[in-house]
Write a structure and sequence with these properties.
The chain has helices at residues 2-14, 18-35, 42-61, 200-211, 248-259, 387-401, 449-452; strands spanning 65-69, 81-83, 94-98, 102-109, 117-120, 126-130, 136-141, 147-156, 162-172, 175-177, 180-187, 216-218, 221-229, 239-242, 267-270, 274-279, 290-292, 306-309, 317-325, 328-332, 359-362, 369-370, 380-383, 432-435, 442-447. The protein is of the alpha+beta class. It has four domains: 2-54, no CATH class; 65-173, Immunoglobulin-like, CATH 2.60.40; 176-273 and 366-459, Collagenase (Catalytic Domain) (3-Layer(aba) Sandwich); 276-362. The strands form six sheets. It has a seven-stranded mixed sheet with strand order 14-16-21-18-19-20-17. The chain has a five-stranded mixed sheet with strand order 2-3-9-8-5, with no helix packed on it. The longest helix has 20 residues, at 42-61. The relative contact order is 0.10.
Length: 460
């Protein structure tokens, strides 16, 4: 009899059909209850059958329920952040939510053999409620907290409880940026250098689409105030940022902004561009294949093309960097010839004179923005012509001020040059590989952007 039962069970298992297996088990249990009423092996056999039934039933349930994001607009929307993490793993999704606030998620499921399910989370911290649309659930943070993670488990009710879906809720205290001032910088006496007066409401609306993921919110931006600054000290018509930390043109802008009471949360718009500049430590002679800089070469991207010239562009020569060591560059001016070709002209260095000293600049890019610094109370400087450009740059440079690093992921707001942000992952919980600022050079580190965001920057 035992062998007969075993054969029936084996065939049912091999069918991998939970419905068929359940019917087989029910039939066997009913049969055994009469024929084996006094058989001591009955209970063990039934227990064994129940365990196998549970296993097969789990196969039917696992993967049949998964969390997904709600739309970005509407009443039942993804109010803060949603990170799918690893595509294909339905149990590692994370959402962000403001402390003592709510967001919405979808939960798509098919219970098959089971008639009920339950959401399980610490009720002191998280409340889960059905929303007005099918499969949409409202998740509310109950407690005031700076930073906390709460796991939601979805389980079924059967012979045993089977967990078949998980979601991690990341609760953060919101950083609220209230009444940010908006300034436009122009060279004194040059009205054509004034940036356009962009719509501050549109900037706020677009920027918050990204910043909500890290639970940061700009409440509003005031209308633009134009500020004249005598920044063009080397007379080349643009702003120059020197990488050795001594940037008199940038310093002139910040000094003027402090005079008009600008803060780190303020928004500062520049019309044209900011040059990325490296000073030479000494004069570069005709025929030289090396350049000594006053600052580290780590911030130069070796994939780019560079120029050396006077600030106004006179005596320009183009070169590529073939290697670097600390502050020393080895260069080549003609890749078509064998070996490193040197410069054809002299490029003098005159100490303390940026007007006449030749310097190194990237030919491939200019700086689109400089980071906000809450410790120094200096705002982000942004270069852009549209509300969309400025909203992305603002999100990027403001987040630098909140301790986030550049990354080499073009879909992420913190991309080191030109981001094309993925609306579904502008900032992520999943660790991003960080790079040296402004370059594609990996630091060897990763950063969880949600966790790393400093939501108390004034305490720095």
């Amino acid at each position: 009899m035992l062998n007969k039962i075993k054969n029936i069970v084996d065939r049912a298992i091999n069918s991998n059909n939970p419905v068929k297996f359940k019917a087989t088990i029910d039939s066997l249990k009913h049969s055994m209850s009469g024929k084996w009423a006094k058989n001591t092996e009955k209970d063990k056999t039934i227990d064994s059958l129940v365990k196998v039934q549970d296993t097969l039933s789990c196969r039917a349930v696992v993967g049949e329920g998964d969390f997904t994001r709600c739309p970005e607009t509407g009443d039942l929307r993804n109010v803060y952040g949603y990170d799918e993490m690893n595509i294909g793993d339905k149990n590692d999704d994370h959402i962000s939510v403001k402390s003592q606030s709510s967001t919405f998620v979808k939960f798509n499921y098919s219970l098959r053999e089971y008639k009920s399910m339950a959401f399980n989370a610490d009720p002191r911290k998280i409340v889960i409620e059905s929303a007005s649309e099918p499969s949409v659930f409202k998740i509310t943070s109950k407690q005031a907290t700076e930073k906390e993670e709460v796991l939601i488990r979805v389980s079924t009710k059967s012979i045993r409880t089977d967990i078949f879906a998980k979601l991690t809720v990341c609760v953060y205290k919101e950083l609220l940026i209230e009444d940010a001032k908006y300034y436009g910088i122009a060279q004194t006496g040059n009205l054509s250098s004034r940036p356009s007066s962009l719509n501050p409401s549109l900037i706020v609306e677009e920027a918050n689409k990204y910043l909500k993921y890290e639970v940061v919110n700009i409440e509003k931006i005031s209308p633009i105030e134009h500020v004249d600054v005598n920044f063009d000290l080397n007379k080349n018509g643009v702003i120059d940022y020197y990488n050795d930390g001594n940037s008199p043109e940038i310093d002139a802008i910040y000094k003027r902004l402090l005079e008009v009471k600008a803060e780190a949360k303020s928004i500062v718009l520049i019309k044209d561009k900011i040059n990325d500049v490296w000073r030479t430590k000494k004069s570069v002679r005709r025929g030289d294949t090396t350049i000594a800089l006053t600052s580290s070469s780590a911030y130069l991207d070796l994939s780019e093309t560079f120029i050396i010239s006077k600030p106004n562009g006179d005596s320009t020569e183009i070169f590529r960097i073939t290697s670097r060591n600390g502050k020393q560059l080895t260069i080549d001016t003609d890749a078509s010839k064998e070996g490193n070709q040197g410069f054809k002209n002299n490029h003098p260095k005159i100490v303390g004179n940026d007007l006449l000293s030749h310097c190194v600049k990237s030919k491939s890019h200019t700086i689109a923005g400089l980071a906000a610094n809450f410790a120094r109370k200096t705002p982000a400087l942004l270069v852009g012509a549209t509300e969309g450009d400025i909203s992305q740059l603002l999100s990027h440079e403001l987040s630098h001020g909140l301790d986030l690093d550049d990354v080499n992921n073009a879909g992420n707001i913190m991309h080191y040059t030109k981001m094309t942000p993925n609306a579904k992952a502008p900032f992520t919980y999943k660790g991003q590989r960080t790079v040296i600022t402004g370059t594609s050079t990996n630091t060897g580190k990763t950063q969880n952007q949600w966790r790393s965001t400093n939501r108390n920057p004034k305490k720095q």
